[in-house]
Amino acid sequence: MDFSLDTLPGGLAWAGGVLALAALIYEARQADWRTLISGPVLGRLLGAAVMLMLLWSLKANLAPGFRLHLLGVTVAVLTFGRARAIFAIAIGSLASAIGTSTELAAWPFNFVLLGVLPAWLSHVADRLLQARLPNHLFVFIFANACAVSAACMLAVGVGASLVQALGGAAIGPILEDYLPYFLLLGFAEAWLSGMAATLLVVFCPGWVASFDDRRYLLNK
Fold first, then answer.
1. CA nearest neighbour of 191 among 96, 93, 70, 52
2. pLDDT for 51-64, tens place per residue?
3. Which residues have C-beta within 8 Å of that of residue 163, sequence separation ≥ 6?
4. I need a labelling partner for 32 at 20 to 30 A (CA). Which of 4, 67, 137, 179 fits?
């Protein structure tokens, strides 16, 4: 999942750099920096970046050049919104790459695959679920947080498997020895996201940008 430069097919490292730069430029225009800097959210955002750095640093080496770890992206998107969350992910993942001696040339691609992709999926899924499902606290926790985070982990696994296939890896070993790990990681990601979302909406509901306590808690 966390690729090194020598495991990326030719051209994907450059493509990752272009996509990472484009994503950061686009999200920078959506983040409302004036409000962010003047309010208390900046400290929380930097704190989230530190938590993401720690989470991405806890890696399991599946094979040389392939390292698995949890993401924490869905909770970040629910808490700060997609644009600000992507910057927290960028800071945290870059700090993790530096701290764990990961090749910095591969960081943009890993950031796009493991950060930008699940952030956008989480954003779209949250919008759809809020529009279609009942406004209930448990729906938010189990659907918007748990189920979406697990689905994002599986999407990342599929993307990582496609990258390996493009690099010439055999499809059979990918399906049998690599992709199933993401099912286990999906359960872990769902548990972690559900726990974090529960603590946030119970003790600090005003911190969660996509959670409106008037909508989910009043008259229930």
1. 70
2. 999 999 998 877 66
3. 3, 8, 9, 12, 113
4. 137
pTM for this structure? 0.94
Please, which contacts does 163-171 make with residues 24 or more away whose CB atoms are closer than 8 Å? 163/3, 163/8, 163/9, 163/12, 163/113, 164/7, 166/9, 166/12, 167/7, 167/8, 167/9, 168/9
Strands of 2-3's sheet in order across: 2-3, 66-68, 60-63
Helices then strands, each counted (H, E), the chain: 12, 3
Give the pLDDT band (50/70/90) at residue 35. Answer: confident
Cα 195 to the chain's mean position, in Å? 16
Q: Who contacts 32 (Cβ-Cβ below 8 Å, separation ≥6)?
A: 83
